[in-house]
């Protein structure tokens, strides 16, 4: 199975330094498809600079962080790119966090890396959930 890779470019925006240059379409763990539009801004993983000395937030699993960012920003996801799509499917923080961990595994992240990022968002993610 070939996994889609988030294609990004520098955005010039401090808090969201990358922007998708192409739409991203992914399959979620429960079988739904998720669509993230071209132009979506991301920082991959909102990791404090001091933590980045020990844990790199950009890697082969960065697409998992884009999925997680989108779910966190909007409290859900879109199934396709139609502008008149019915209301986006809603997700809880717990579901978004579990999906990030699942996607990280698909993209080859080690169990230790999955564990570290999963528990970081479980403990501190409430600070950012649905706050654009």
Protein architecture, described:
The chain is α+β, with helices and mostly antiparallel strands and 132 residues long. It has one domain (8-126). Helix content is 34%, strand content 15%. It is built from four helices and seven strands, in the order βββββααββαα. It has helices at residues 49-52, 62-74, 93-106, 111-124, and strands spanning 8-10, 18-20, 24-27, 33-36, 41-42, 76-77, 89-90. The strands form three sheets. Strands 1-2-5 form a three-stranded antiparallel sheet, covered by helices on one side. It has a two-stranded antiparallel ribbon with strand order 3-4. Strands 6-7 form a two-stranded antiparallel ribbon. β1 (8-10) and β2 form a beta hairpin. The longest helix is centred in the C-terminal third of the chain and has 14 residues, at 93-106. It is globular and about 35 Å long. The model has no long low-confidence stretch (mean pLDDT 81).
Task: Offer a few descriptive terms.
132 residues, alpha+beta, 3-stranded antiparallel sheet, 4 helices, globular
Q: How many whole angstroms does the radius of gyration measure?
A: 14 Å
Number of domain units:
1
Q: Average pLDDT, to the nearest integer? A: 81
Number of strands: 7
Q: Report the uncertain regions.
A: none
Strand order of the largest sheet: 1-2-5
The description of the largest β-sheet is: 3 strands, antiparallel
> What gross morphology would you assign?
globular
One letter per element, helices H and strands E, the order comes to EEEEEHHEEHH
**Could you tell me the strand content as a percent range?**
15-25%
What fraction, in percent, of the residue positions are helical? 25-40%
End-to-end distance, in Å? 33 Å
What would you call the structural class?
alpha+beta
Number of helical segments with 4 or more residues: 4
């Amino acid at each position: 199975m070939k996994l889609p890779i988030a294609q990004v470019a520098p955005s010039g925006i401090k808090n969201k330094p990358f922007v998708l240059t192409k739409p991203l379409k992914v399959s979620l763990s429960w079988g739904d498809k998720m669509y993230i539009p071209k132009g979506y801004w991301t920082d991959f993983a909102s990791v404090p600079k001091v933590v980045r000395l020990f844990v790199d937030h950009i890697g082969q699993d960065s697409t998992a962080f884009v999925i997680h960012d989108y779910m966190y920003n909007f409290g859900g996801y879109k199934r396709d790119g139609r502008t008149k799509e019915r209301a986006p499917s809603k997700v809880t923080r717990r579901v978004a966090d579990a999906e990030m961990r699942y996607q990280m595994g698909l993209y080859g992240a080690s169990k230790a890396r999955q564990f570290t990022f999963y528990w970081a968002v479980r403990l501190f993610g409430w600070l950012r959930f649905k706050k654009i």
